[in-house]
Amino acid sequence: MFPENGHRAPVQRAVEVHHPTTLTPAPTTPAPLVPVQPGTVPAVASVVLPDGRVVTGYAIDHARPEPAAPKPPVSRAAVNVALGGVGFLAVCGGLLLLTTFITALTALITQLITLAAVIFGGYVAVQIFKPSEAKSGHTFHIRKAVIKRNHFHG
Predict the structure, then answer these.
(1) What per-residue confidence (pLDDT) applies to 112?
(2) Angle CA(114)–CA(120)–CA(124) in degrees, nearest 5?
(3) Taking 80 as the threshold, does the pLDDT of residue 49 lie above it?
(4) Computed from CA positions of residues 97, 102, 107, 111, in that sequence, does the dihedral angle turn out positive or negative?
């Protein structure tokens, strides 16, 4: 399917190799740390641990978030409208389910009636069209016409 390349010499290509070079950061002198004195001297707290050691340090006040603004009161009318909307949607969903159930029930009844008609029609056809010696002598009235022993009596 493919031509054989056995008679050709392999092609040699020049390969260029790249070596990573290290980057030296520019010399920077760290900024001198300037001590900042607090406006007031905080109180020093000492705590005695259960094993007898004493830990001394400054108490730090945690940042407290601003209190949330009070929510405006919701009017009764707004609550009633919202609840009425939820109730309306629930009623619509219930009516949709009810109509779906009624439709399914109607389809089931229609299928059962059709099945009964097919079975009864088959029974009648068998009784009418079977040989005369096997007939039972029953009379079937179909549209006010009488068929008895393969004879039509109108």
Answers:
(1) 95
(2) 140
(3) yes
(4) positive
For residue 85, what are its two tokens? Answer: 């909307």
* SS3 of residue 29 by DSSP: coil
Give 61's strand partners: none
pLDDT digit string, tens, across residues 61-115: 677 888 888 888 888 888 899 999 999 999 999 999 999 999 999 999 999 999 9
b/e code 33-42 from CB counts within 10 Å (16+ = b): eeeeeeeeee
Task: Quote the CA–CA distance of 58 and 38 in Å, as a whole number.
Answer: 12
- Strand 54-58 to 145-148 pairing: unpaired
Q: Tokens at residue 105, please?
A: 């029930």
Sheet (strand 140-142) strand order: 140-142, 145-148, 151-153
In this structure, what are the phi and psi dihedrals at residue 2, rounded to the nearest 5 degrees? -105, 145
Amino acid identity for residue 12 in this structure: Q
